[in-house]
Amino acid sequence: MAFTKKKTDAQELPEVLPVHVGFIMDGNGRWAKKRGMPRTYGHVQGALAFRKLLRYANEIGVKYMSFYAFSTENWKRPDDEVHALMDLMRKYLKEAYEHFDLRTRFVLLGDEDGFEADLRQQYIDIQKDTVDFERMTAGIAANYGSRNEITHACRELAQLVKEGKLEPEDITEDMISQHLYTKDMPDVDLMIRPGGEQRLSNFLLWQIAYSEFYVTDVLWPDFNRYDFLRALLSYQGRNRRFGGV
Q1: Sign of the torsion angle spanned by Cα atoms 214, 34, 71, 94
Q2: pLDDT of residue 99
Q3: Got the DSSP string for the chain?
Q4: C-alpha dihedral sign at 22, 213, 60, 52
Q5: Are residues 70 and 142 in contact, defined by beta-carbon separation less than 8 angstroms?
Q6: What is the per-residue pLDDT for 2?
Q7: Which residues form the catalytic set?
Q8: Residue 233: which of 190, 188, 185, 187 has the closest Cα?
Q9: Cβ(145)–Cβ(72) under 8 Å?
Q10: Looking at residue 245, what is its pLDDT?
Q11: Other Cβ atoms closer than 10 A to 161
Q12: What pLDDT, on a 0 to 100 scale, did the predictor assign at position 45?
C-alpha cells in the first residue's frame, strides 16, 4: 500500500493500527549541527515534533505511546544541554494542561527522584491530573534505563519473598511486568527509531520482546505525520507470529 501527501487522512490511514507504539527520539543534535546551530536548538525542534506527533496519533486512534525523552546515561552530556532538556520538560509539562482536549493520560517511565524538586512535582501532578483520561496513554521515559527498570522490579519481588508474601517459584512473567514502569500498558507492538541508528539504547528491553521495528534516516525534528504513516503501513504488512509458524 502506498500513499501521497495529497490524499486525505482517511485514505492514508492503515486498516490495522498497533496498540502501543514506542519512539526512540533520535537525531536532535545532528539536525542542529547540519544547520550550524547548537544542539539545544535541535532539542527545541524535537519537542515541537513530539507535540505534533502526539496529537496526530491521538486523532487517528493509537491507544498507547512511549517516548524516550532522557535516559539515565544522558546525565553524562554537557551541563548546558542537560539543563536545556530539563527546561524543555518543565515547559512541556506546563503546556500539557492546555491540551486536555486530547484526554491523554501521562505516565512517567523512569525514576522521578532523579529530578530537581519542582520538575519532580510537575511529573507527580500531571500523572495525578490525567489519571482518569482514557483516550490515550502517553509514557514519557525520562531518567529511564531499561536495565535499571528490570533491576528495580526484581528488587521489589525479592523484598516480597523476603517478607514471606511470595514464593520464588510463584514469580511469573506477568508478575514481573506488573512491577515495571509500564505496568498499566501493554507490550510494545511497533518500535520506531528515527535518525538511522540501529540499536535499542537500553529502552523497554522487556516490553519489546516481540515488537516490530521500523528505522528511518529521517532525523527526529523532521519526523512528521507522513513519516509516521509510512511506519504504520510497514507495520500493517508484517506477519507477527510471536514465535509460532
Answers
A1: negative
A2: 87
A3: ----TTS-HHHHS-SS--SEEEEE---HHHHHHHTT--HHHHHHHHHHHHHHHHHHHHHHT--EEEEEEEEGGGGGS-HHHHHHHHHHHHHHHHHGGGGGGG-EEEEEES-GGGS-HHHHHHHHHHHHHTTT--SEEEEEEEEE-HHHHHHHHHHHHHHHHHTTS--GGG--HHHHHTTSTTTTSPPPSEEEETTS----TT-STTTTTT-EEEE-SS-GGG--HHHHHHHHHHHHT----TT--
A4: positive
A5: yes
A6: 43
A7: 26, 74
A8: 190
A9: yes
A10: 55
A11: 13
A12: 96
Angle, vertex CA 205, rays to CA 222 and CA 33, nearest 5: 25
pLDDT-flagged residues of the chain (< 50): 1-10
Give the position of cell 525479592.
158
Q: What is the pLDDT of residue 110?
A: 96
CA distance 82 to 84: 5
| pLDDT for res 128 | 97
Beta strands across the sheet bearing 64-71: 104-109, 136-144, 64-71, 20-24, 190-193, 212-215
